[in-house]
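Private note to self, pasted from the team thread so I don't lose it. Backbone tokens:
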């Protein structure tokens, strides 16, 4: 056989070699990025991901199942480095309650985390006496990014800097000079970006380095408390699996409801739990007949109760009792959340059922006593969605001191 490329002129051959080396470098970097994306995409949960500790040993994040995690990329020569003091204070305060802080030094921002992981760890223990675990240095953006941070960014993108905070304005101005559209991407913007992960592995929140530690602490306290985390995790669910809720679980929800407080312990409510699928289908046919266009517009329509397989109907006296009935319903919805069920409080179906004579059979089947009315309906079932929280207006709260 002849020499490779014997027919190619020497100068062209050299260009090919140079191009090949350049192309190969880009190919390797691109391949690394693809591998990282595939690794994070294949992870069904954060517990499928492994990281390296400060000795290079592989550590599965499944070891932290059941703990609340605060995951942070750090640097030792950054203006935000003193946050180590606040992080250690959080760790000391909440560690026994289930908090773990996972520290991943990163040298991608201003080369502010130089040195080996051993040197970084020595610096942090000497200057900030940190007790929480530090892991091997990582990259959080780009082709060599850690699968962990790829996973975190995919679930919680960049939400912006607080423009009312001088440090937030400073960071925004600095980054916008480098890239006018920096805020359009979910990549990590700087050192000390933090992610809060719940006990069951959900990525709850992302914090930028300028976010107040007091706000982060409040969120940690919520996640560490089963009651508070249930309250904060509850959402109105409007998509359900085609799977009825078991009778014993519905009975437990009703029991939690009637244990709600009421004025003078009058317990004025009446509760009806609907399991009869035939009854639901019958009243739904009445609705479909009365609203053909609306049903036609919704290809996923199954029933007027947000497609839920079960209902909890709450009745109250025709005169009064609304406050007590509302307390009962909140107990039921929070209990459902804690049991892995979804709920949605419905008023529209009540108006339809009580105003349409063809639906009177449904009210008759509920056997509502005289002097009571159907107040609202709680749709309940196994959720087929995980809605994000809607913003809450904290300015409506004022403290009178």
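Design output:
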């Amino acid at each position: 056989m002849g020499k490779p490329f014997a027919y190619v002129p020497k100068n062209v051959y050299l260009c090919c070699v140079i191009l090949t080396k350049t192309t190969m470098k880009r190919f390797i970097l691109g391949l690394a990025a693809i591998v990282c994306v595939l690794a994070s995409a294949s992870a069904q949960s954060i517990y499928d991901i492994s990281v390296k500790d400060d000795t290079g040993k592989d550590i599965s994040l499944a070891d932290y199942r059941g703990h609340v995690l605060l995951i942070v990329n750090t640097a030792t020569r950054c203006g935000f480095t003193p946050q180590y003091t606040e992080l250690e204070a959080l760790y000391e305060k909440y560690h026994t309650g289930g908090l773990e802080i996972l520290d991943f030094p990163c040298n991608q921002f201003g080369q502010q985390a130089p040195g080996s992981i051993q040197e970084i760890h020595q610096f942090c223990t000497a200057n900030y006496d940190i007790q929480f675990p530090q892991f091997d240095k990582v990259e959080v953006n780009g082709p060599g990014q850690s699968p962990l941070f790829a996973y975190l960014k995919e679930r919680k993108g960049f939400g912006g800097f607080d423009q009312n905070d001088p440090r937030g304005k400073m960071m925004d101005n600095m980054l916008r000079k480098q890239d006018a559209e920096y805020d359009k991407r979910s990549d990590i913007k700087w050192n000390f970006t933090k992610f809060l992960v719940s006990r069951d592995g959900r990525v709850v929140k992302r914090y930028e380095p300028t976010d107040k530690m007091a706000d982060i602490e409040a969120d940690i306290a919520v996640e560490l408390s089963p009651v508070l985390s249930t309250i904060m995790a509850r959402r109105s669910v409007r998509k359900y699996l085609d799977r009825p809720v078991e009778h014993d679980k519905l009975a437990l929800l009703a029991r939690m409801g009637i244990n709600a407080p009421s004025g003078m312990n009058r317990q004025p409510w009446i509760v009806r739990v609907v399991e009869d699928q035939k009854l639901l289908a019958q009243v739904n046919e009445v609705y479909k007949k009365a609203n053909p266009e609306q049903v036609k517009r919704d290809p996923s329509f199954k029933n007027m109760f947000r497609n839920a397989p079960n209902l909890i109907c709450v009745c109250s006296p025709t005169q009064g009792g609304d406050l007590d009935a509302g307390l009962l319903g909140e107990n039921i919805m929070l209990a459902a959340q804690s049991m892995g069920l979804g709920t949605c409080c419905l008023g529209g179906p009540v108006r339809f059922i009580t105003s349409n004579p063809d639906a009177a059979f449904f009210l008759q089947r509920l056997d509502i006593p005289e002097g009571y009315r159907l107040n609202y309906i709680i749709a309940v079932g196994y959720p087929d969605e995980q809605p994000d929280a809607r913003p809450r207006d904290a300015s409506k709260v004022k403290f009178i001191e």
